[in-house]
Specification:
Length: 59
C-alpha cells in the first residue's frame, strides 16, 4: 500500500490547484493509497515575507 502526502501551497481552497489536488487524491484513494493532505493556509505561521527578497541576507 502506498502512503502519499499532498501539499496545497495555494492560499485558496477554491483554486484550480486545489481542484487538481482533489482529483489526484480521489484517484490515489481509489487505487488503495493512503493519502494525507496538508493545506499550507491552515498552518499557524506568518506567510508574509515582509520585505521579501528586497533585503540581502548577511552571511
Amino acid at each position: 500500500m502506498k502512503n502519499i502526502v499532498l501539499i496545497l501551497g495555494h492560499p485558496s481552497k477554491e483554486s484550480f490547484s486545489n481542484a487538481l489536488l482533489e482529483a489526484y487524491k480521489k484517484g490515489a484513494e481509489s487505487k488503495g493509497a493512503t493519502v494525507e493532505t496538508i493545506y499550507i493556509s491552515d498552518l499557524d505561521f506568518n506567510l508574509n515575507l515582509a520585505d521579501g527578497y528586497k533585503k540581502k541576507l548577511s552571511s
